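W.,

You were right to be curious about this one. When I first looked at the sequence I had no strong expectations either way, so I just let the prediction run and decided to look at it fresh. Below is the sequence, 378 residues in total, followed by the output.
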Amino acid sequence: MLGVLIIVVALGIAAVRLLSSPTHPATVVRRATPTPVAGAVGPPFPHTSPKISNQAGINPEPGMRPSQYVGPNPDGWFCRVPHCADGRLPLSMVSQELRLMARLHVGVVRVEFPWPLIERRQDKYSWARTDAIVNDANRYHLQLQPVLVYTPAWAGPGFTQAPTSAALWSSFVRSIVHRYKNSVHYWEMWNEPDAAYWLSGSQSYVQDILIPGAAAAKAADPTARVLLGAPYFADTSFLNDVYRYGGGTSFDIIGFHEYANVLSATAIQQDVDAVQGVLDSHGDSSRPIWIGEYGYNEPSEMTDDANHIMALRIMLQQVVGYQEAIWYNLRDDDAMTCCPLQTIKVAHWGLVQRDDRTLKQGYAVMRKLLRALTPPAQ
């Protein structure tokens, strides 16, 4: 009996040694490490600098157009095969267009990261597309500025309305900022919340989106820079409402969009000065102003895009007082519905034609202008 006991003990010791052997790491029992943020664990995205190379940026096509179609924009980076315009492959489109942006030497790429396309069900995330965008932006040394926008059907009554609970929005913001915090440093809380992209009013925007979103972003990454969702024009009434409803401490960068006055240096300067006046009146004079979108819809897909060239030269050579101006957009794209695919509206905002190969004259002009720009104040 003693001999049997010795054999059993010896086998037990050998088994312990085997289980703790470096050649069997999968069998080693370790104390579980809790995930800091639900759904946010991903590849080890590299640490990049938040420094911006110059005062000019560019937008790709929108990720969604809910007023036209409730799914991903068929003519944009989030399209789903086989429902992509012109039979495109979305990852090839992303890579090709980021390459074109890198050749422009833009300081910022402002891109929609639509909440409904990423968190399709509560706590069920689809990261493949945003991972690809972040990885390609890193490959081309581009600074991304995502716009977090639209309410999923499971989280609220409509894409352009407040979620039923601000905690749902906070959870999404915290997850996405945590996932990409090494590589993405600028986050915008919604798009044009003074217009059709937000129907719940200024007070709801501040209290249901801006304040909880900024807090969630800073909790996930204390170094993150939060952008106020830019109104679709220099809407000083909306900007003052942000302060009125308590949002004045919940953003680092203010902004607006410029379309109506894009061919008038005097009018754009008045708009910049008006936004600066809002900051001054609230004791925030030093906050940066970003023009998140500006552009011109040419009458056709001509390569001689004279109005684009004029708008670029006005903004980048004549207007002062802003820190970043972001062109809308890189490529001509159409508003479409699906499925089947159907074009609703043809537009020619891009510096590149629909084929992603034919460059307009405005592309060359912007590239030349950007070489002369200096980095903005950080």
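Here's what jumped out at me. Residues 110 and 145 are 5 Å apart (CA to CA). And, maybe more interesting for your project: The chain has one domain: 54-370.

Coffee later to discuss?

I.
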